[in-house]
Specification:
With 353 residues, this protein is α+β, with helices and mostly antiparallel strands. Helices cover 25% and strands 33% of the residues.
Length: 353
């Protein structure tokens, strides 16, 4: 790996040549992780944090109204609100939840290794004050940003409380090749058993456990699904679905995940725009940025539950990674919105010929 001095020099040159590059892209160009990039020059704007990330998350509500951001390679989910009603569960999985009408999150804390407080001056715009968390590979798992309504004094008090003794460059990021388990050949899968288990589902939350039990990947499961429970649609279906949801005022649920967090929006969408290949929801409390060029396959997926069939629209990249998925707004014990079901069922019929 290059020395810190070399990286700093290359970073300065890169910023001069391409001043609009975001940190994620700067890091990729330099061949380092985002957390390493940010700690190249710790100081007044970047502070390394230490301690229990669960404890820090429980105290975020002191900041008041903030913006939560969770992203993967192809989709960014931003939701404004107040961090509250957070719980963590015992056990080796080390998971937690924040269940609120606005900030709705699922935490997988085993992935949370590094934490930074990052201040981002923006010229004539308000300075952003943020907490940013990263996994062992230095990839962002979740970020929290200030808004015009955030208590910035409370932010500074939290930074001081969790400030690490070591403020140097992070040197222990995992740069080993990513291991990807090969997909089990279809002929070695108990397809009949798998299809019966799918047909017998009573809760959408049991779907992942079913995949694990039968040793199938998510996209393989969709190929092998029982008749009528998974249907491949064209990759423009997401645009039509969001536009119909907006025009009909159909509330949706939108899920985006990183390796360590799932972020959920529940509600309507209104302001929809394309910018290049990125399709965007640009509403006051909720923003979504989806790189449509990265969509390799799109599926309408139907899962039986105790409350009836629940229908989702799920998008995958070329490696089979889940990019984003959508449901109609619902709560356990309630049937799926009929308008959402009809909207999604009609997606194959609305494709451009």
């Amino acid at each position: 790996m290059k020395s810190v001095t070399e990286l700093k020099q290359q970073l300065a040159e890169l910023k001069a040549q391409q001043p609009k590059l975001r940190n994620r892209d700067l890091a990729k160009t330099l061949g380092i992780s985002e957390v390493e990039l940010l700690t190249l020059e710790p100081g007044d704007l970047v502070t390394r944090l230490a301690g229990d990330w669960k404890d820090l998350l429980l105290q975020i509500k002191r900041l008041g109204y903030v913006m939560a951001l969770t992203r993967n390679e192809h989709c960014i989910h931003e939701r404004k609100g107040v961090y509250d009603n957070i719980s963590f569960y015992d056990g080796s999985n080390n998971v937690g939840v924040a269940v609120n009408p606005d900030i709705d999150l699922r935490f997988f804390m085993n992935e949370w290794k590094y934490g930074l407080a990052v201040i981002m001056p923006r010229g004539k715009m308000d300075t952003l004050f943020s907490f940013q968390f990263f996994n062992g590979r230095g990839e962002a798992v979740h970020k929290i940003f200030s808004t015009g309504k955030t208590d910035v004094d409370a932010y500074h008090r939290l930074v001081e409380a969790f400030k690490a003794a070591d403020q140097g460059f992070i040197t222990d990021v995992d740069h080993s090749p990513v291991y990807r388990k090969a997909e089990t050949p279809d002929e070695k899968i108990d397809v009949a058993g798998f299809q019966q288990a799918w047909s017998d589902l009573q809760d959408t939350h049991h779907f992942f456990g079913m995949l694990k039990k039968y040793g199938v990947t998510r996209t393989q499961a969709l190929r092998l699904a029982p008749e009528g429970l998974a249907e491949k649609v064209d990759n423009e279906a997401v645009v039509r679905a969001l536009e119909m949801a907006a025009s009909l005022d159909v509330p949706i649920m939108c899920f985006v995940h990183s390796s360590g967090c799932v972020q959920i929006h529940t509600g309507t969408v209104k302001n929809l725009k394309y910018y290049g290949s990125w399709y965007n929801v640009l509403d006051p409390q909720f923003n979504l940025h989806l790189n449509t060029e990265a969509i390799h396959t799109s599926w309408v997926v139907r899962k039986p539950t105790a409350d009836g069939i629940v229908t989702s629209l799920e998008l995958f990249d070329a490696e089979g990674n889940l990019i984003v998925y959508f449901f109609g707004a619902r709560k356990p014990g309630k049937a799926e919105l009929q308008q959402w079901r009809e909207l999604v069922n009609d997606l194959p019929n609305t494709a451009t010929v």
